[in-house]
Amino acid sequence: MTDRLIVDYEGRIARPPQEVGAQFGDMRHHASHAVHKGIVFTVHADDGTTCTFRQAVRLLGMMQVDEVVLTRNADGSLTSDVVSGTNVGTRFTQRFADDGKGGTIVHFRADLPVSGIKKLLKPLFRRAVYGTIDKAFREDVVDLEQKGYPRKPI
User: Fold this and answer.
1) How many CB atoms lie within 10 A of CB 30?
2) Residues with Cβ within 8 Å of residue 129, at least 6 apart in sequence
3) Disulfide check for 56: which of 15, 40, 92, 104 has CB 3.0–4.6 Å away?
4) Is the CB of residue 13 less than 8 Å from the CB of residue 104?
């Protein structure tokens, strides 16, 4: 049986759920506007429901390169499965709920298989994953609340 690491994160963005969900699932936007410093996205294909892309990020000094399939679900949530690479078997889920004040509560879950050094360093790895999610979330807040999504042409 594979050991798993579950990391839950929740935060608020002062934009409507439809806009937040669209931005979170728009990997072309993330790639072309460098929304997340230190994470490189390369989009392979996007048909509006499913997006395949490569994600590269350094975590605890280790380069993590993954091929990801993102699915935009009918309920507005997003599911991203790592199908190959450093973190194969990982699943990210994001749900977006109206906060009743014009904003969105984002529920994010990372479910990662851990083995080898990651298993040995599980508490440290948990903190690193949480920190990476928190940093990325704060960058999404800036992107949505300050820069605007989608970007308006100049």
Assistant:
1) 23
2) 5, 7, 59, 110, 112
3) 40
4) yes
Q: Would you say 106 and 20 are in contact if contact means Cβ atoms under 8 Å apart?
A: yes
Cα 27 versus chain centre, distance? 10
For residue 2, give the amino acid letter: T
Q: Which two tokens stand for residue 119?
A: 């298993």
* Contact status, residue 56 vs residue 65, Cβ threshold 8 Å: yes
CA distance 100 to 88: 37
Q: Which helix (H) or strand (E) element contains residue 127? A: helix 122-142
- Of 154, 128, 152, 150, which is closest to residue 35 (Cα–Cα)? 150
pTM to 2 decimal places:
0.92
Q: Within the chain, how many helices (H) and strands (E) appear?
A: 4, 7
Local structure of residue 103 (DSSP, 8 states): -
Low-confidence ranges of the chain (pLDDT < 50): none
Residues 69/81, Cβ–Cβ less than 8 Å:
yes
